[in-house]
Amino acid sequence: LSTVLMKWSRALCHRFERSGGDADLEDAIVTGQQSFDCASDDSEKVAALYSLAHAYQARFMRSGRLDDILLQISTLEQAVDLTPDDDFDKGTYLSSLSVVFKQRFDRTGDLNDLQRSIETLQAALILTPDGHPELPALLNNLGAALLNRFHNTSVEEDLNDSITKLSQADALMHANHIYKTRLLSNLGVAF
User: What is the pTM of this model?
Assistant: First the structure.
């Protein structure tokens, strides 16, 4: 039942993204919570939480309310905690969490959120093996976050680390990768 509810929650969220109907988004959140509540094991709980976090993200993008970011952070932290370190997707969950910290930093200017974004990306990199399809994007995101912190603190080490991570990402990312332009832009700003 949990899987069916999670898929229904995702479908409602996708319909909201296409039609903009607030009722679909609220139903996606309620259904996502129900999916979590009836999950029989950790993998079902993680899937439900990740889906629920996506719905909170959509509501934040619609309303701009910071409490939706808080809900998204809490939900993703639960998903990360329930995911074993050797799970192929744990780095992806950590990366999603880092994005939310970065969004809150962009909204509030609180450098602690930028720091948490960086720490979360560093943890994701530790868990992400060579050859993982998300590795170049993780390196790019970490490089961009370090560059952002450099712009806010003028700590030279952040600039150097940013260039290193962005260069590593560039070496791994195919020329036609969806994020290649963003990566090269970040690298250009860093130099």
Answer: 0.88
